[in-house]
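Subject: Protein record for review, amino acid sequence with backbone structure tokens
Why sent: The fold of this protein is of interest and is recorded here as tokens.
Enclosed: The protein record, placed directly beneath this head.
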Amino acid sequence: MDGLSAPALTGIRRLSALDTVRARIALAVELGLLAPGEALPPGPEIAAALGVGEITVRRALVSLCADGVLVRRRGRGGGTSVAAEPASGVVAEIAAYTGAVAEVHELIDHRLALETGLVHLAAVRRDDEAVPEMWDLVRRMEKASGWAEFHELDARFHAAVVASSGVTAGVEKYGEVVRELYRYYLPYPLEYLRESNREHGELTAAVERRDAVAAVEVTCRHVEALHTTMLHSG
């Protein structure tokens, strides 16, 4: 390799896909984001939300059941849910996430800088075809049945907003930053997510009326909140 060695992997980059799923679900349980007895979404939805394969999710859930974090019930009305008294401190991979707070804050700031500029242009240049898509996604998020479904729709919403700016290079860079940030995504209570969806509605309304100042203000509020909600790292 021309005398160069690959950089050492640090933090979550040292983890396998299986370990990242284990860590994210277990950490959400320890932080109280997933409550005792709460049912998890179907495996395919979890896989889409966490960006991994369904087999990986299946193996992670089985292992977390063995660890006492989750329980599996068979038959009609069965599925995987958080244990009534979930075991704590049994998933060592969590440390890779809790030790990454500084990186998370930096990624949030990078996202904020890019997204506010792109949102400003999206409002000024309002794409009449994009606005109905944004409203449709807002309505679908309001009806989402769980955090996994909501997260997939949320990602599509923000992508649609910035894409309507028409700045291809900026949108591509934004996508890179968000994909990296989503590596730290944890399940959130659906009530919290629906509350955040109100800001999606405010943003869409601002873009629709070409109010760039209001669009940027709600974007700042929406993204800056991640400093206190992601990994509970405020």
Notes: Residues 9 and 184 are 16 Å apart (CA to CA). Residues 100-232 form a domain with the Four Helix Bundle (Hemerythrin (Met), subunit A) fold (CATH 1.20.120.530). The first helix runs from residue 17 to 30.
